[in-house]
C-alpha cells in the first residue's frame, strides 16, 4: 500500500509564475524523493512602479512515503 504525504511551499521568481513553479519543484526535489504531483494553490505578484517585479506561487506538493521493509 502506498502512502502519500503533502507539503505546502512558497516559491518566487523574477521571470514568471511558470519559472517560479519550476524552480520551486526543482529545489524541493533536492531533499524529497518520489514527488508524484503538484497543485497550484495561489499565484500572486509584487508590483513596483506599475510593473511586476516578483512572481510568487504557493504549491501543494505530493510525494510517496518510503516504506521500510
Structural features, described:
The chain has 1 helix and 3 strands. By secondary structure, it is of the alpha+beta class. The protein has a single domain (4-64), classed as Dodecin subunit-like (2-Layer Sandwich). It has a 3-stranded antiparallel beta sheet with strand order 1-3-2, with helices on one face. The longest helix is centred in the first third of the chain and has 12 residues, at 17-28. The model has no long low-confidence stretch (mean pLDDT 95).
CATH architecture: 2-Layer Sandwich
N→C terminal distance: 12 Å
Q: What would CATH call the class?
A: Alpha Beta
- CATH level 4 superfamily: Flavin-binding protein dodecin
Q: List how many beta strands DSSP finds.
A: 3
Low-confidence stretches: none
Largest sheet: 3 strands, antiparallel
Helicity, in percent? 10-25%
* Tally of individual helices: 1
CATH fold annotation? Dodecin subunit-like
By secondary-structure content and strand pairing, the structural class works out as: alpha+beta
Order of helices and strands: EHEE
Amino acid at each position: 500500500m502506498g502512502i502519500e504525504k503533502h507539503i505546502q511551499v512558497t516559491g518566487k521568481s523574477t521571470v514568471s509564475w511558470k519559472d517560479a513553479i519550476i524552480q520551486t519543484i526543482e529545489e524541493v526535489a533536492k531533499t524529497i524523493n518520489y514527488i508524484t504531483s503538484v497543485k497550484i494553490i495561489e499565484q500572486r505578484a509584487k508590483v513596483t512602479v506599475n510593473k511586476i517585479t516578483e512572481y510568487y506561487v504557493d504549491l501543494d506538493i505530493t510525494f510517496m512515503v518510503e516504506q521500510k521493509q
